[in-house]
Amino acid sequence: MRRTIIITGGAGFIGSHVVRLFVEKYPEYRIINLDKLTYAGNLANLKDIENRPNYRFVKADICDFDTLFALMQEEQVNGIIHLAAESHVDRSIKDPFTFALTNVMGTLSLLQAAKLYWECLPEKWEGKRFYHISTDEVYGALELTNLEGGNEPGGGPFGDTFFTEETKYQPHSPYSAAKASSDHFVRAFHDTYGMPTIVTNCSNNYGPYQFPEKLIPLFINNIRNRKPLPVYGKGENVRDWLFVEDHARAIDLIFHKGKIADTYNIGGFNEWKNIDLIKVLIHTVDRLLGRREGEDLNLITYVTDRAGHDLRYAIDSSKLKNELGWEPSLQFEEGIEKTVRWYLDHQEWMDNVTSGDYQKYYEEMYSKR
Ligand code: NAD
Ligand code: DAU
What we know:
Blueprint lengths: L3 E5 L4 H13 L4 E6 L19 E5 L5 H11 L3 E4 L6 H6 L1 H24 L9 E7 L38 H20 L3 E6 L1 E3 L8 H10 L4 E4 L5 E6 H14 L5 E4 L4 E3 H15 L11 E4 L14 H7 L7 H14 L1 H9 L5 H6 L3
Parallel strand pairs: 1-2, 1-4, 2-3, 4-5, 5-6, 6-10, 7-9, 8-12
Antiparallel strand pairs: 9-11
2'deoxy-thymidine-5'-diphospho-alpha-D-glucose (DAU) binds next to helix 6 and strand 8.
């Protein structure tokens, strides 16, 4: 079936990988990247595909119901992949209102616009999909019972428990509370109105084009520039890391083959204690820059812990594997090497982001059209 899909948040980290995958893999589809271009949105992430005939960029806020509704009518949209969000936990601690506004009210505006548009069509929900991208952080935190676990390449369990699709929601940060609320709204639109929705909850992503406020790009850049590496608390918190292109592949598969009203967890069974991961980053950057490996370990600086810092995340993604056959394609060592190389090779991208120059890209590219 020919699809016209709005991808929200397509100028962000994960969204840009999803947009690129869909634009390249489905030339017969029409892909509309709808993004407000907050500090986290960067159209330079999509430079390589911006002139493709099946791609359109629309600068808009997901809270702007009228614009969303008009765009859906104009483009006869039959699919929505919703990634736009405020995504950084530390920012949510300082400014929870913006997180509620974008993540909750923005999601609700998008749901309501799609509902009103699709409901009035003769075929109603048939062939439609509202796919909401969420996070494992809605499940809260797991116990860390095995402090030594997972240090081997490829990771391993730091405890006996994992987040499954049945795990009770227990968000702790304003970010995860807002994402949890948006997940509930999406499911409520299925249960109440019959809207064809899907929700997925993914673990920590890493890879090219991530905004350097997040651990991996921030630390790669700091190691390169020999700046301190602020490790929260004792560095013992555990995260489950997945290469971003594997997440994008999962989104493609689930958008096309996932069961309506269902939920899938996405993760790579790849747990790392922060401090171990940071050491891998230091060794990799040092090696690739021709420095003595480990010479930058002295940049590690323990700082005050993040408020409410979740101890451990670990996703059980076996449902996705068993039902749809998805598996991560990259081993962590390969993924981290690729990622570090990408940031070192794209210093201009990093400099534009850290200086704020990237925000001029939209003006230059789109004001002329
Ligand atoms: P990001 O911060 O890199 O990008 C977010 C994008 O959304 C930006 O382009 C921004 O401009 C846009 N945006 C923000 N507010 C908007 C609004 N009001 N209207 C329109 N656009 C708006 O985020 P990311 O890391 O790519 O995460 C994308 C999605 O995936 C989020 O929903 C996040 O919760 C989820 N997620 C992220 C991870 C991760 O590790 N990064 C893991 C699991 C789930
Ligand atoms: O689990 C999925 C989530 O992963 C996504 O929903 C979020 O959008 C995404 O930002 C990410 O959240 P985290 O809080 O886990 O990611 P972050 O990169 O901010 O931090 C990773 C770990 O590193 C976390 O335990 C906090 C720690 N940290 C982070 C920063 C930025 C530090 O020790 N120092 C730092 O400077």
